[in-house]
Every structure is written in C-alpha cells, then in structure tokens.
Write a structure and sequence with these properties.
The protein is mainly beta. The chain has one domain: Metal Binding Protein, Guanine Nucleotide Exchange Factor, Chain A (Beta Complex), CATH 2.170.150. The chain has 2 helices and 10 strands; from the N terminus they run βββαββββββαβ. It has helices spanning 47-52, 121-126; strands spanning 2-8, 15-21, 41-44, 55-60, 64-68, 73-76, 84-88, 96-101, 106-112, 129-132. A hairpin with a 6-residue loop joins β1 and β2.
C-alpha cells in the first residue's frame, strides 16, 4: 500500500517525503496514474543509474515534498537533458531525479529507494523490481544479466 516515506542524502542536508508503494505484487494499491511506471520499483543499467546504483520508484510530483536542502542540491543533466538528476553537494548522494513526460502523465520524481530512511529491510526486500536495459535504450525489456543491478 502507498504510504509516506521519508528520505535523505547521506549527510542529511537534503530531506524529502514521498508517497510510495513498496508492497509486493498482489498487495499493492491502485496506481496513482496509468502505466507500468507506478507499479514497481526499477533498476537500470544505463551509464548513470549503473554508476550511481540508482534504484528508483516513480512518484507523481504532487506526492513528493522536498523538506530541506534545496540549496545543497547540484543538478546534472545528460543525453537529451530531459531529466533533472540531482545530488547533494556535500556528500554526493543522488536522492531523486525529476522530469515532466506526457507519456507518464506529467511531472514526476524518481525517488532513490536506497535513500528512504524509514523503509524497513523487509519492505525493501519485498518491493517488486523491473529491470530496464537502458544501456541499449530498451526500456521495455530487461538486460540479459540482472544480478549485478
């Protein structure tokens, strides 16, 4: 079920809250928007996600609140520059990214699940994961090998 989780970067300068559903399949809430993005967490092998170990859960922007640390955030854009990747200037952790894609129903945040401070080990272990082959721009299929993600 969707619930509000709190997260932060490593040093705590950046803090946020987001409504996320980490429940396993069969126990999940109705997705907040149509589309697969709202039904799971995601791990990707694109050059950025792989190097930062970014494990994402998509959240409609209305379900995300930056509680502290706007001034601590630095921005990084690559490729077509459509996604605002942010990281803490102090500790370097990537707590979330944001963008606005029509196909996803408008503005959203991609929350780094690893940055959730109050998600239990059991919740994290039970969270469904969809693997994306971002390395080959094949977002609709997993890479041949996923164990390293």
């Amino acid at each position: 079920m969707r619930k509000t989780y709190h997260g932060s970067c490593h040093c705590g300068a950046v803090r946020f809250a987001a409504k996320i559903d980490l429940a396993p399949e069969g126990k999940r809430s109705e997705p907040p928007r149509p589309g697969i993005w709202w039904t799971s967490t995601f791990r990707c092998n694109c050059s950025s996600c792989l190097k930062t170990r970014f494990w994402k859960a998509f959240v409609p922007s209305e379900d995300f609140s930056l509680l502290a640390g706007e001034e601590a955030l630095a921005e990084y854009r690559f490729g077509e520059g459509m996604i605002r990747h942010v990281f803490c200037r102090h500790c370097g952790v990537h707590p979330f990214a944001s963008a606005d894609f029509e196909i996803m129903g408008g503005p959203f945040h991609a929350v780094n699940v690893a940055c959730l401070d109050d998600a239990t080990d059991k919740e994290l272990a039970a969270a469904p994961i969809i693997y994306e082959d971002g390395r080959h721009d094949a977002w609709d299929r997993p890479p041949e090998v996923t164990g390293y993600l």
